[in-house]
Amino acid sequence: MFRVQGLRVAVAACCAGTFLAAPAFAGAAGPGAPGVGDDYFPGYGNGGYDVAHYDVQLRYDPAQDHLRGTTTVVATPTQDLTSFHLDFALPVESVLVNGRPAAVDHRGLELAVTPSQPLAEGELATFVVRYAGVPSSVEVDGKNPWIRTSDGALAVGQPAISSWWFPGNDHPTDKATFDVAVAVPDGTEVVSNGVNTDTSSMAGWTTWKWRTTTPTATYLAFVGIGQYELHSGTGAFGQPLLTAYSDDLGHFEGPAKASVERTPEVVEFLTQLVGEYPVEAQGGLVASEGLNFALENQTRPTYSHLFFRDGANTSVVVHEIAHQWFGDSVSVDEWSEIWLNEGFATYAEWLWSEHQGTGTAQQLFDHYYASHPADDPFWQVTPGDPGAENVFDAAVYDRGAMTLHALRTVIGDAALLDVIRTWVAEKRHSNGRIDEFIALAEERSGRQLDEFFTTWLFTPGRPPAGPENGVAPGARTLSTPPPAVAQLDATHELVHRHD
């Protein structure tokens, strides 16, 4: 011990003038921004660096809801940095930057870090944050998305959740890969994204390790901790499949399994429509308490038991699996672009209904168009810019899906599929904007579509009937709505709540 310490001191003294010299900077170094400038949530995310990987190591005691963690952030500065921010809510014990202690100023969700020396643009940087706290006791601006359950916890939420269990750059524009290791008392299960790489026990604690190898937005990383029945197997295209069901589902268990176990079938159906499945694993988790929504956590969506209160529900499975393309692989550039997530996932449900023979997309379009009178407030929310308070409004979902079907009517089936397939291929594992989608639709269809999209996405009021808007005159509610409507409505009543 003393010999190693002495060697370390000698090396430090010898090399202080060379290896430990401050890096050269291209220009004047400065602080990174405390947000990415999102119009709806300006404080979300941070400027000045790009994250490549998160290594999240946790120890969680369900009885006390106590979380202790060490997260290593592997990043690259995008400018010369004198300081930078991390988004985090729990009490912080220490921060190391490139192995050296850093000064911190922690207020709300903003953890301002000042390293011992500036960070050079383009150079590898590591941030090691040690922390501990009780997540359910920490509120910021009156909000706490952490869900404590009787047997554990769920870190599931949108648009914010990661700050309650690991520090990071919490905005969809900065995706990264993940390693997540959680130690819990023996007999407790932990489910997260990707693939379970190892599970081991020592001294009454079991550590579950999960790895995600495709770029993932921070809000799409999750952990489910508690008593779960786990099933592993092979999904579509030979990918790993893991599903998890709370031990306390009771009479919801049968319909939940009848729905979520169809995930590989849904993956194959959607792949045939829109192209290669974009992530490395498949599955889902069904919780028995704490949730009244579903969320498209990457590779493994999380579902409330309430989706299965009336029986099997494949619509919600289709919705969340569709998000693996629309929202997870192709993520929003700003939260105002949420139609690119929710309108597409909802329209996937319509296409599944058409495939299953429970109502064509045209029948569903006619139903929703006619069932909302022209003076219905539903039409006052514009899916292309709904406002921060309406990010998950029903119009973003249903009027959003109607927009895509109306586009199908205007440009034709083949052109719409070509546009969507091109979109998910060109934007794979990156971010997209509505204006980029409009430009692509015009390019691939050969049609001028500005007025169409302005009417459907950005203009309050019900789009008038007419061929230019993809609405046949006299559209009306069927005397008997398509069978899919009941399940779609029940699904969206809950899905809309996932903020």
TrEMBL record:
<protein>
    <recommendedName>
        <fullName>Aminopeptidase N</fullName>
        <ecNumber>3.4.11.2</ecNumber>
    </recommendedName>
</protein>
<dbReference type="InterPro" id="IPR001930">
    <property type="entry name" value="Peptidase_M1"/>
</dbReference>
<dbReference type="InterPro" id="IPR027268">
    <property type="entry name" value="Peptidase_M4/M1_CTD_sf"/>
</dbReference>
<dbReference type="Pfam" id="PF01433">
    <property type="entry name" value="Peptidase_M1"/>
</dbReference>
<dbReference type="InterPro" id="IPR014782">
    <property type="entry name" value="Peptidase_M1_dom"/>
</dbReference>
<keyword id="KW-0732">Signal</keyword>
<dbReference type="InterPro" id="IPR045357">
    <property type="entry name" value="Aminopeptidase_N-like_N"/>
</dbReference>
<keyword id="KW-0645">Protease</keyword>
<dbReference type="InterPro" id="IPR042097">
    <property type="entry name" value="Aminopeptidase_N-like_N_sf"/>
</dbReference>
<keyword id="KW-0031">Aminopeptidase</keyword>
<dbReference type="GO" id="GO:0004177">
    <property type="term" value="F:aminopeptidase activity"/>
</dbReference>
<keyword id="KW-0482">Metalloprotease</keyword>
<feature type="signal peptide">
    <location>
        <begin position="1"/>
        <end position="26"/>
    </location>
</feature>
<dbReference type="InterPro" id="IPR050344">
    <property type="entry name" value="Peptidase_M1_aminopeptidases"/>
</dbReference>
<keyword id="KW-0862">Zinc</keyword>
<feature type="domain" description="Peptidase M1 membrane alanine aminopeptidase">
    <location>
        <begin position="312"/>
        <end position="456"/>
    </location>
</feature>
<keyword id="KW-0378">Hydrolase</keyword>
<dbReference type="Pfam" id="PF17900">
    <property type="entry name" value="Peptidase_M1_N"/>
</dbReference>
<feature type="domain" description="Aminopeptidase N-like N-terminal">
    <location>
        <begin position="53"/>
        <end position="220"/>
    </location>
</feature>
<keyword id="KW-0479">Metal-binding</keyword>
<comment type="similarity">
    <text>Belongs to the peptidase M1 family.</text>
</comment>
